[in-house]
Every structure is written in C-alpha cells, then in structure tokens.
Design a protein that fits this description.
It contains 5 helices and 6 strands. The protein is α/β, with parallel strands linked by helices. The chain has a 4-stranded parallel sheet, with no helix packed on it. It has a two-stranded antiparallel ribbon with strand order 5-6. Strand 3, helix 4 and strand 4 form a beta-alpha-beta unit. The longest helix has 20 residues.
C-alpha cells in the first residue's frame, strides 16, 4: 500500500471479512483509514451467498466514522428493503446471488433484483 499514491487509494474499495470475533478490529481499521479509501466492502460469505448478520453490521456501522459501506453476502431481492432500511449502505454486492450456477448469471434473477432496486427508488421518492 505504501507504493500507491493517495489519489490511487481514494479509488480503491477495501474488502473486509466480517465476523463477531473481529468486529472491533474492523471498526478500528475503518475508523483509521476511512479518509484514505473510496469505500469498505463488508462481507462474510466470500461468494458463498451466506447471509450477513444485520445486527452485527448495524453495530459496526454505528461505530464508524464517515465511511462509505458496501454490503455483500446473500443479497437477494427479498432482503434488499431490509438492508436499505436497517443499514442504508452506500451500495450492495449481489454477484453470487444472481447466479443460476457458479459463474453463470441468471437473467431472471437479475431482472427481479433490478425491479426491487427500482421499487426502493420509488420508496425513496415518496419520503
């Protein structure tokens, strides 16, 4: 990381594997480096679609400084609304949950996901 300019770092998203056992370390890392990087991706599934613990993520998010947070792990159309309401992330990574099999994106799942995103935008406009 020392070889990267601060301009280059501001374009990077740092992925962090999240667990109950390392939450304090994650909080310290994000607070220490929040102004150096573009965003932090919090994940515990590593492409396995394992759902994140909402309470754990909410606790981490409540204890960090102004950092952009991207949520990954078991993101599906059915839980997008909850993620938006509970965590209000900068973004989500839904890559593996949009596959019909490993490495093969499913157009029906993608369409359903995008429809749910549009429904969330409609909700936001109503506020």
């Amino acid at each position: 990381m020392k070889d990267l300019s601060s301009d280059q770092k501001r374009k990077l998203i740092i992925a962090l594997k999240v667990a109950q056992s390392n939450k304090n370390t994650i909080i310290k890392q994000i607070n220490k480096f929040h102004d150096l990087f573009f965003a932090f991706l919090l994940d515990n599934s590593e492409g396995q679609g394992k759902k994140l613990n909402f309470e754990l993520l909410q606790e981490i998010k409540s204890k960090i400084n102004d950092a952009k947070i991207i949520i990954a792990g078991g993101i599906e159309p059915e839980n997008l609304k909850g993620i938006a309401l509970w965590l209000n992330p900068y973004g989500v990574d839904a890559s593996s949950s949009l596959e019909s099999e490993k490495g093969v994106k499913d157009p029906i799942k993608i369409k359903k996901f995008l429809n749910e995103i549009n429904n969330l935008k409609d909700l936001e406009c109503e506020r």
